[in-house]
Amino acid sequence: MRFNEVLKNVKNYEAGKPIELVMREFGIKESEIIKLGSNENPYGTPPKAIKAIKANANKAYMYPDESMIELREALSERFNVRAENIILGAGSDQVIEFAVHSKANPNNAVLMAKTTFAMYEIYSKQTATKILKTPSHEHKTEEFLDIYKKNKDIEIIFLCLPNNPLGECLDKKEVYNFLEEIDENVLVILDGAYQEYASYKDSNKKIEPKDLIEKFPNTLYLGTFSKAYGLGGMRVGYGIANEEIIKNLKKLQPPFNVTSLSILAAHAALLDEKFVLKSIKNNFEEMIRYEIFAKEKGIKYIESYTNFITYLFSSKNSSEIAKTLLRRGIIIRDLSSYGLNAIRITIGTPKQNERFFEEFEKIL
Ligand SMILES: *Cc1c(COP(=O)(O)O)cnc(C)c1O
Questions:
Q1: Under 8 Å between Cβ of 119 and 125
Q2: What is the pLDDT of residues 278-329, one digit of tens each?
Q3: What is the Å distance from ligand 1's center to 185 Cα?
Q4: 327: CB partners within 8 A, 6+ apart
Q5: Are 76 and 191 found together in one domain?
Q6: Does any ligand 1 atom lie closer than 6 A to the CB of residue 22?
Q7: Spatial separation of the C-alpha atoms in residues 313 and 319, rounded to whole Å
Q8: Cα-to-centroid distance, 242 and ligand 1 (Å)
Q9: Does 164 contact ligand 1 (Cβ within 6 A)?
Q10: In whole angstroms, what is the distance from residue 240 CA to residue 143 CA?
Q11: Domain match, 284 and 238 both
Q12: How far apart are CA 278 and CA 269, in angstroms?
């Protein structure tokens, strides 16, 4: 059968391995599997969200309110922007999809860091646009600028703040200085999937969407309920931008793209500040253990502003390490597909981390 030519170049997203797969393949009991591969909140679903989902299960037969105004208003209050400045997606992933399809085409280009969130490239390839990447794995604004100045056809620039899968994060000041140099017709997407973590650890990293879109009307800020808010399975994310951008993204939005229970769960999670704050605090307390462990074992790591840490290896092979851990029921993320001999480990609960160190020590 014939398909669009462009699909030849589109790769499927390599998702973190699910618990079910490890049960099937290695015959390990669910209770003995530790999933530190997808950057979910290890403390689970926020209690207030569980309550909201249970209380509203009987409404699942109805379509959601198409405007999703309740959640948009809650977010508008949280970020002090207007509801007209907000679009919701089935994960912030979907907002990335809208943004890419709103501008990218075979005659222009997009720019991103060499090693960053894989979906930027996948959505871009669907449009057959040209994909430009910085030479360094991590975000370096001077490299972005250099490429930007040499390529007048760039329509979209991606900044992942902090960056998945490496964990590094540019300071707000550096981001703003960079944005000063960018033409107002170029859309700059600031992916804040881990902003809650970064701004807790270091206030210099904090990006305020209101301030951002007022100063730079060509920016789109992205947030998600999948990480700190503990709702990866509910698929809710959002974009914040000026009204012109939101209006155009909405033209690509399918009807009812976020489910009614997801909207309610996200709203409840947004109000469960105690849960979120505790998750973030625990995350950085536990991260110290990963840093100490790495130093003791002579493993290089990247200072992380997220809920994961990336270990870099020189002699050991990251794929082998990931496979061995998997056979013992521990799911982490091998980064060899990014051209790195490295693994990304989601920071788990104290007990999960203990188990990781125990098993990992045996491999070393
Ligand atoms: C997890 C993640 C997202 C979005 O996840 P959704 O579940 O689709 O909201 C976006 N960007 C980065 C960098 C991420 O790590």
A1: no
A2: 999 999 999 999 999 999 999 999 999 999 999 999 989 999 999 999 999 9
A3: 25
A4: 26
A5: yes
A6: no
A7: 11
A8: 21
A9: yes
A10: 26
A11: no
A12: 13
Q: Model confidence at 184, in pLDDT bands (50, 70, 90)?
A: very high
User: What residues form DSSP beta bridges with 160?
Assistant: 191
Last residue of a domain, one of 272, 297, 319: 272
Domain stops at, among 227, 257, 272: 272
Residue from 39, 41, 93, 189 to probe ligand 1 pocket by mutation (most atoms less than 8 Å from CB): 93
| C-alpha of residue 89 to centroid of ligand 1, in Å | 11
Give the 3-state secondary structure of residue 238.
Answer: strand
Residue 232 alpha carbon, nearest atom of ligand 1: 7
Is 22's pLDDT higher than 90? Answer: no
Spacing, Cα 356 to ligand 1 middle (Å): 24
State how far the Cα of 23 lies from the Cα of 17, in Å rounded to an integer: 11
CA 268 to ligand 1 center in whole angstroms: 20
Q: What is the mean pLDDT of the chain?
A: 96
pTM of the model: 0.96
Q: Above 90 in pLDDT, residue 190?
A: yes
The residue with greater pLDDT, 330 or 16, is: 330
Q: Are residues 141 and 255 in the same domain?
A: yes
pLDDT of residue 25: 86
Whether 207 and 328 share a structural domain: no
> Is the CB of 92 within 6 Å of ligand 1?
yes
307 pocket-lining for ligand 1 (C-beta < 6 Å): no
Same domain membership, residue 121 and residue 52: yes
Cα separation, 232 vs 307, in Å, equals 14
Q: Which amino acid is at 29?
A: K
Q: Is 147 in the same domain as 284?
A: no
Three-class secondary structure of residue 24 per DSSP:
helix
* Ligand 1 and 160: CB distance under 6 A: yes
**Maximum distance among all alpha carbons in the chain?**
56
Running DSSP on this structure, what letter comes out for residue 39? -
One domain, residues 199 and 183: yes
Domain containing 356 equals 5-45+274-363
